[in-house]
Amino acid sequence: MGDYRKLWSDLGMDLEKHDQLCAVLPGLFSDTYLNQENRPDGMNYFNFVFSEVHGLRIQELDEHKKKGGKVIGTFCVFVPDEVIFAANAIAVGLCAGSQFWVEDGEKVLPRNLCPLIKAFMGAKLSGTCPYFESCDMVIGETTCDGKKKAWEILDEYVPVHVMDLPQMKREKDYKMWMDEIKIFISKMEELTGNKVTVESLKEGIKIANAKRRALKRLSDLRKHKPSPISGLDVLLISQIAFNDDPIRFTEKLNELCDELDERVKNSSTSDKKRILITGTPMAIPNWKLHSIIESLNADVVVEETCTGTRYFENEVSEEGDTIEDLIKNLADRYLNINCACFTPNHGRTDDIIRYSKEYDADGVIDCNLSFCHTYAIEHNEVEKALRENNIPNIHIETDYSTEDSGQIKTRVEAFLEMI
Ligand code: BJ8
Questions:
Q1: What does the pLDDT average to over 212-234?
Q2: Residue 38: which residues within 8 A CB-CB, separation 6 or more?
C-alpha cells in the first residue's frame, strides 16, 4: 500500500491506533487467502482492492469530495443504493467485522450486544476507519433493537438519517416504506444539492441491477460440482461489493466469471461436502466460519445472508415514467428481502430450503452473531423446516474473537462426518 498518512491525518484519524490495525490485517489476509490452492487469476483484482482498502479507494472518495461530491455510509441492505447513486453520491458499507474495534465500542455500548454493532461504533469512536471518516452522512434503519438505539449515540459523532423500516409486509407497510424512500430522496437531494430525476434514478437502478446480475452469475457458477471458486473467495468479493466503485466492480466480477465459465468446462470431481451457510452478515474482515469450514473437507457453496443472496437476489424494475413509479419498483424489490427483523419471516425459511436444493447442499450451518436475538430465535423455524426436508444442520452462535475457533472446528468436523 502507498503512503496515505497525509490523507488519513487530513481525515482526522488516529494514526497511531490505525497503525496497529494495519499491522495485523495483511497477515490475517495472507494466512486466510493467499494459502488457498488453485485460485482463479481473476481474484488478483480483489486481492489488490483489499490490499488498498484503506488507501486507493479512500483517495477516490477524497477526490470525489474535493469536487463537491458526498459520501454516504450504510449498514443494511434495505437502504437503496440507487437513490445515493442518483444524487451523484458514493455509497459505502460501514458494517464492521473485526474484534479490533469491539473494545472501543464497549465504551459506550453494553458488552452483551451484537459484535457488529459494537465494532462499527468502535470504528467511529477510535477514528481508525477511513470510510467512516469520509462520510458526510450515515443512514441507519429501524431493524434490530441494538442498531436502532445505537443510532442515537452515533448521531453525536456523525449526522445520521434513520429510515423507518416496517417490521411486517402488509399493504400498509409497503406504503410506509415507499414514504420512507421518498423522504430519503429528499434528504439526499438536500445534502448533495442534486435533484433526483427519473433519468438519474433509472441510471442508479441500472448500475445496481448490473452489479446484482454479476453477483448472481457468480453465485450460479457455484452450483457446478465442484464449485469453481472457494466460498472464502466469494465472501471476499461480496464484502468488497459494499465499498468498491460499482461499475468497475461489476466489470471485474464479470471478467472473473468468464474465467470460471472456462474452469467448469474442464473441472474434475470432488468428494468435498457442500455447505449452505445461513444467518447474519459477515462484514469484512470476518472470514472465521468460512475459513474453518474450508480448512476441512468441505466447500461453502452458497450463503443465505446479507453478504450473500439477500444482497443480490431480485432486481429493481427499470420500467416507469415517474419518480413515483420508480419508488414503487424500489419498494417492491427491497421489501422482498427476508430479514429476521420481520415477523413473520417464512420467506427466509423457504429460501433456505430452495437454495439447499438448487445448490445441492449436503448440510446447512445456521450461524448468527452473539446476541442477535432475531436470528437466534428464528433458528427454531429454520431447524424445523430443514428437519422436515431431511437436510442436516447445526446452529452456531459466535462473535469476532478467535477464542471459540477450536470448539467450532470440532463441531463442524463432527457435522461433516455425520452428513
Ligand atoms: S437486512 S440482517 S443487514 S438488519 S446488527 S440484525 S447481526 S443484532 S445486520 Fe442486518 Fe439489514 Fe437484516 Fe441484513 Fe443481528 Fe447484529 Fe442486529 Fe444485524
A1: 98
A2: none
Distance 237 CA to ligand 1 centre (A): 19
Closest residue by CA, ligand 1 atom 8:
372
Residue 272 Cα to ligand 1 midpoint, Å, equals 30
Distance from the CA of 198 to the center of ligand 1, in angstroms? 31
Phi-psi sector, 406: left (phi>0), alpha (psi -120 to 50), beta: alpha
pTM: 0.98
Cell 469491539 identifies what position?
A: 102
C-alpha cell at 155: 448521531
Separation CA 35–CA 290 (nearest Å): 14
**Atom of ligand 1 lying closest to residue 145 CA:** 16
| Ligand 1: centre distance to CA 76 (Å) | 7
pLDDT reported for residue 73: 98
Percent of the chain with pLDDT over 90: 98
Three cell numbers, residue 299: 466447500
Domain containing 200: what range?
5-418
> Nearest CA to 232 among 55, 30, 24?
30
**Alpha carbon nearest to ligand 1 atom 15, residue:** 114
Residue with CA closest to ligand 1 atom 10: 76
What is the structure's pLDDT at 3?
87
The mean pLDDT value for 141-153 works out to 98
How far, in Å, from the CA of 280 to the mean position of ligand 1? 6
Asked if 407 and 377 touch (Cβ cutoff 8 Å), the reply is no
- Overall size of the chain counted in residues: 419
Which band of pLDDT confidence, cut at 50, 70 and 90, is reported for residue 49? Answer: very high
pLDDT band (50, 70, 90) for residue 398:
very high
CA-CA distance, 195 to 169, in Å (whole number)? Answer: 30
- Residue 387 Cα distances to 63, 272, 395, angstroms: 53, 22, 13
Count how many domains the chain has. Answer: 1
Residue nearest to atom 17 of ligand 1 (CA): 280
Atom of ligand 1 nearest to the CA of 144: 16
Q: What is the pLDDT of residue 1?
A: 61
The closest alpha carbon to 182, from 394, 327, 26, belongs to 327
